[in-house]
Amino acid sequence: MAYSWADDDDQTLQHDSKTLKYMPLYELNSNFNQQYRPNVSYHYNEQVSHFHYGVRHPMKPFRLMLTDHLVIGYKLHEHMDLYKPRRATRSELLEFHSEDYIDFLSSITPDQSALKSYADTLAKFNIGDDCPVFDGMYDYASIYAGASLDATRKLINGQSDIAINWSGGLHHAKKFEPSGFCYVNDIVLSILNLLRYYPRVLYIDIDLHHGDGVQEAFYTTDRVLTCSFHKYDGKFFPATGNLDETGIGKGKNFAINVPLRDGVDDESYIRLFKSIMEPLINQFNPSVIVQQCGADSLGCDRLGRFNLNIKAHGECVNFIKSFGIPMLVVGGGGYTPRNVSRLWCYETSLLTNVKLNSKLPENLAFRNWFKPDYSLHPNLKGDNLQNQNDRKFLENLKITVLEQLRFLNGAPSCSMNEIPPDLQGFTKDDEEAFYEKLKEQDFNDKFIDGEARDKKIMKDEARIGELME
Ligand code: V1D
Ligand code: CA
Q1: 195 vs 134, 253, 279, CA distance in Å?
Q2: Closest CA to 113 of 85, 134, 92, 95
Q3: Residue 137 CA from chain centroid, whole number
Q4: Which of 43, 77, 172, 377 is catalytic?
Q5: Quick check: is 172 catalytic?
Q6: Tens digit of each residue's pLDDT (9 = 90 or more) over 372-385
Q7: What is the pLDDT of residues 163-178, one digit of tens each?
Q8: Which residues are annotated as a binding site?
Q9: How far is 431 from 27, CA to CA, in rounded Å?
Q10: What is the CA angle 213-59-354, rounded to 5?
Q11: How far is the C-alpha of 466 from the C-alpha of 469, rounded, in Å?
């Protein structure tokens, strides 16, 4: 019988109605002792979930609160270091974005944007239906970017092997403008920071949409290899990411695109993903990986027409983890909040080596969002959605990409000659002083201990109690 990526195949955590309340929420994986057991950190500033793009807009930051409730409800905080990161500063944002764009972003208000006199400025900065001006927009952007940067600092100073920021992953933002719901590009900012210490960065993007902003930012360098899997038909947003976009100059062949059609299913996606990523990682030999885990590639997404189940998406993340390379994991798109939060909670469990009971915790806040099944793994495969990627199409994709990999000629031995400008000319002493400062900064970051976290949960529940009355 074929493996089911949807429902609960796990016998060890099964229960009947009488024993339900005694069932553990999770168990450690059976091969726990032999497995790669990375130090995992979780970077989350809950303020990020309070912003609203607008009632009709599909991007709902609220999904991040649902995710956090699931993560905490399953007690995954017992397996990670938790940080409440500070916002990114203006000067941190300027590492990638232009000054006039950041000035605009930090000064425009919804009231002003309603005025006709601003029409030209709004058009200049691509403000419109996809990227509206909303209350607190700049705060929102600096909070999610701050969390990704915080995560990179933990990787750089060796405190974390895997650092997670589900509020990040906004891969479309450009140097001079927002794009596709993304205001600042936390991924580009993070990669720039990682490049100060790591010779080669691999960027993997499994969001439904092409990771165009990240690809564009590193299109001419061989120190960052970008690889995006996405829907492509020449029209679907952002209408880039065909096979022939491969990089230019020194970056030739260091951009990889896997353009797919609607309806791709679990088996075909996983097979294709693994058959490309394994040789790619062996060839490029990255020193650090950034993985964007957009949830709009799941079945039943409000904007997407892929057909993946949560376990299949997770299988890709787990496969990359199995290489044991330091990794920044970020979110991205995802427009059916209940499934976004299920997915990112499940992926947190994979990264922390914890096996979750499929039945959602009884005392979960917002549990009614997950009815009627209350399961972590509802079947998301739409039976009426045909897989328009037939075997031949997928085989051709694989062959073309593997052919491109042959041109990589091994990993570039990096002389670090493309170090971001502010670190050029660093002496050993400078570098040590810098590390000391980093450590100090870590200490000042709000590290959330178990007790503080428990208090926070009690507070959240009280608030929900009030809401329900
Ligand atoms: F359906 C909508 C309703 C309101 C506002 C916007 C949309 C919408 C849906 N899809 N907008 C889109 C995409 N834009 C366009 C352009 C509008 N022009 C006329 C064409 O099709 C943008 C999709 C953005 C996807 C973002 C992402 O999922 O990749 C993401 N990743 O990280 C964060 C977000
Ligand atoms: Ca993608």
Answers
A1: 33, 19, 23
A2: 134
A3: 20
A4: 172
A5: yes
A6: 999 999 999 988 89
A7: 999 999 999 999 999 9
A8: 130, 180, 207, 209, 296, 335
A9: 42
A10: 85
A11: 5
